[in-house]
Amino acid sequence: MGKNEIVIFSVSLRITQRISTLLAERKLQIPVYELNYFDVLDKANELIKNGTKIIISRGGTADLLRNNVSIPIVEISHNFYGIYRTLKEAREKSHKIAAVGFPRFCDMLKHYQSLTNEEFKICQVYNHADIENVIRQLSEENYRLVIGGLTVAEKAKKYGLGVVMGDTDNISIEQALNEAFSFLKYIREENEKLLISNAALNQTREGILCIDESGEIKRINAKGVDIFKCNAGENIFRKPHFEPIHNSIINEVELKDHPVEIHGETVFLNLRHVKNRQNFYTILSGNRSDSAFILNGKAGGKLSPKSFLVKYGFSDIVGSSKPLMHAVDLAKTYAKFDFPVHIYGETGTGKELFAQSIHGESARKNEPFIAINCAALPESILESELFGYVDGAFTSARKGGKVGIFELARNGTVFIDEISEAPLSVQIKLLRVLQEKSFTRLGGESLISTDFRLITASNKDLSPLVVSGAFREDLFYRINILNLNLPGLCERRDDVMAIIYALLAQSGRELSFTDAAIVCLKEYAWPGNVRELQAVVYRLLVLAERDVVDREDLYRYGKMARSDASASASLAIDADATDLLRKNEQHLIREVMALTAGDRVKASAILGISPSTLWRKTKELE
């Protein structure tokens, strides 16, 4: 648990001592503050600014916090056993007793009184300003002792009244602690989901935005800002380029690949509507017709090769392990020749990085490098991206037609990622282009000659797909002339720390790692390869509270699987806490059974459980 993520505001010295003892038994380092009522909010706001996520408190202090701060407030609940102990102490000091408290405490007192028939006065207040008036009146009525919290104690002292501070029991504190830990786990999980969600949204090649029922943009990714020309907080109904889909949004009509003109560019939009009991949202996603990261040009238009130059080269590949260097050396050899290359590697191994590097050292390095992902586009759009189309080829075709990738990439390199996902209809046409070095645009008749180098990639072995008929055998032999297998991160563990430090150098934050953490990082399997490692590093950059990362930080923030030994230790801690809670429960049952002279009905009412449950638990004690 991070420093001060959970804090406790106590309402009396007695409860402070009880909480401190329990925290020591559980070896928990949670700050406990015993505060004057008027200092509570200032302290809470100060702690929240410094990272506190949950406050545990009781009574009026809990109510005050709940109404004035935005973080969860976990209340140490009042129970009959705590009331019994407090009244027992008060009876030893005076026979004329009054209890002063807020509605929740007073409701519990009234219920207790109805079961036990004990005589004492209950004075309910709704704010701390009322407490002094109540204490003054009790003094005038010759009450010599009151029960209450810190503010009651202060005012009682002013009017010469004795005071017994409200008590609680270990079980109530345990329950509050467990609830706080559950809250904290949920908050961390939600923060992590948000972090990953934002990272994923900003990695996607689609523009994505979410609007509420009024049309206000609640969330939008970076690509969405670029494609849709709008920002979070703006209203989509005030954007003229979205006017063609206003009725679809209002009438909850779903759209798929619907063309819209935005600032002179065609964008294919998808609409999906989501609603629950309270809210209604519309998710809008879309790609430009140049969603393969190319610049479109009208038929006959001029395009600058600089638009398609690669961003990465072999110098950007981090690591020096033998498997990696073997792949780099082989790729450099392939770069000297013009034959097709097929790159096979698991997700996150850097297939496009290698493809760009090969192009950057080839004879075509000054010509375009254009990439497209078969898994990212519907079949109809994939074909139009690859081959282009003529004016009027289909309903939403751009006026004047569109230049396809094979035409744009003349004399350069085409990189087709996830080629294993290409539909058979596209495979047939791709084979024809490779064989004949020419093609026709969709809807056209004129043959267009082309000359490009093809690099393909997949995270699936194509051989079984050929056997099953999902991938054409003739195309397989055409693209698989030069084969490059990229090692997974588990095959090059010596590169892990080099990659981490390269990522940290880009972030601006310096982190170091203990020896145990380094061993853990190197021994981990990394099923998601470098992409998973990136995610771990990014989480540490955001969530790690110290600049020295240990193994526990990797488990907590990096979400890396624990070793069996660590998992066993964690289970042992949980078992100790459970055993402590069970012992406290048994002690409480014995005391209440003694108080009620063995009357299970009354005892079960005081304990807040059914008589049958009490019967079972008393049997366990025997």
From TrEMBL:
It holds the Pfam family PrpR_N. One of its GO terms (biological process) is regulation of DNA-templated transcription. Coiled coil: none annotated. GO terms for molecular function: ATP binding; phosphorelay response regulator activity; sequence-specific DNA binding. It comes from the Bacteria. Residues 317-542 form the Sigma-54 factor interaction domain. InterPro entries: AAA+_ATPase (IPR003593), AAA_lid_NorR (IPR058031), Homeodomain-like_sf (IPR009057), HTH_Fis (IPR002197), P-loop_NTPase (IPR027417), Sig_transdc_resp-reg_PrpR_N (IPR010524), Sigma_54_int (IPR002078), Sigma_54_int_dom_CS (IPR025944). Keywords: ATP-binding, DNA-binding, Nucleotide-binding, Transcription, Transcription regulation. This is Sigma-54-dependent Fis family transcriptional regulator. It comes from Leminorella grimontii.
